[in-house]
Amino acid sequence: MNVNSNLLMYAQWAGILTVALAILTVIAFIFKWGFRFRLVGVTSFMGVIAASIFGLGLGLFSRTEIPGAVRYSLVYDTGGSQTVVTVPPTITESQLEATMQQAAADLYSPGRSGRGREYMTIRVRTVVHPEPGLSQPLFLGEVRRSLATRDDDKMAIEIFPEKVAILKKYQA
After folding, report:
1. Do 44 and 96 lie in a common domain?
2. Is the C or the N end of the chain the one with fewer CB within 10 Å?
3. Which burial class, exposed, middle or buried, applies to 64 when counting CB atoms under 10 A from its CB (0-12, 13-18, 19+)?
């Protein structure tokens, strides 16, 4: 059983306990028991706990790990359909493809707004130094993935071979 289903089961039991306490609170008010106002507090607190556990169960997602991917840094993110990540200049072409898949998996969020677009574009770049004191960004490729589905089987990965060739020149 994964963590999400466990948390949702705990939320269900906390909800049942909250309803039971609410019924007990109504009975306490009908019979004018002395601790009826304390039951209001306990019932309210249990409602908050049940809602929190339910929200936590919805918010946790398992992280996908792509073998061969290297560490990347997020440079630019609109919170919508455009992002840019940077990779080290020592990356190989196979590592680049794996890293692009990893970034596409990591940056997916059901809350992203595409503002009319159905896909998200992730551009991958690195920084090379053609001469001392000069830095030049080099875009190595881009990924287009769906904003609607987590497991996008139509994800398009485009690696720019001429840029990777330039990168190999700086690695030598």
Report:
1. no
2. C
3. middle
- Give the C-alpha separation, 135 to 86, whole Å: 14
* Residue 82 and residue 144 share a domain: yes
Q: How many domains does the chain have?
A: 2
Whether this model's pTM surpasses 0.70: no
Does residue 9 have a pLDDT over 80? yes
- The DSSP bridge partners found for residue 125 are 86, 139
Query: Residue 87 falls within a domain, yes or no?
Result: yes
136 lies in some domain: yes
The secondary structure of 102-128 as a DSSP string is HHHHHS--TT---TT-SEEEEEEEEEE
Residue 75, pLDDT score: 95
Beta partners for residue 158, in sequence order: 142
Range of the structural domain that residue 97 is part of = 73-171
By mean pLDDT, which of 29-33, 95-99, 112-116 is the weakest?
Answer: 112-116
Which pair of tokens denotes residue 164? Answer: 């990777």
pLDDT in tens, 54-70: 988 887 666 788 999 99
Contact 126, 141 (CB under 8 A): no
| pLDDT (tens digit per residue) in 39-54 | 999 999 999 999 999 9
Residue owning tokens 């089961």: 9
